[in-house]
Amino acid sequence: MIKIIKDTENHLLIEIEVFEANLNNSDLFKAQVIQLLDRHEKTVIIDFNKVEYIDSSFLGALVAILKHAMGMKLDVILVGLKSDVHDLLKLIRLDKVFKIFGDYNDAINV
After folding, report:
1. Residue ranges of the alpha helices (H) in the chain?
2. Residue 84 carries which DSSP code?
3. How many CB atoms are closer than 10 A to CB 1?
4. What is the pLDDT of residue 110?
5. Which helix (DSSP H) or strand (DSSP E) does residue 54 occupy?
6. Contact partners, residue 22, CB within 8 Å, separation at least 6
7. pTM: predicted TM-score of the whole model, two decimal places
8. Which residues have C-beta within 8 Å of that of residue 82, sequence separation ≥ 6?
9. Mean pLDDT score of the chain, rounded to an integer?
10. Could you say which residues of the chain have pLDDT below 70?
11. Per-residue pLDDT at 41
């Protein structure tokens, strides 16, 4: 479901390895990312470059992950969003909740 791409002192870069982020994989995604947060205690940067579609259950999983991270005083950053996915996040105003960047380098150079 997810793959760790880079593990640095301050953050983990992970990639979602599905085309459709939906109800079928939202619980597994949430569990895996929360486990990474608990184990590594680092900011997580999630790369969406393979994701073409996202549904409400997966959005709920993202919000639950962010809430868990905030409780640990950590952050969740989204990168590599396709235009349809990014437009959806803007439509439901989640772009005001998540830090969203074009790519990994943009995210770490803030």
Report:
1. 23-40, 56-71, 83-91, 104-108
2. H
3. 14
4. 73
5. strand 53-54
6. 53, 54, 55, 57, 58
7. 0.96
8. 48, 49, 51, 52
9. 96
10. none
11. 93
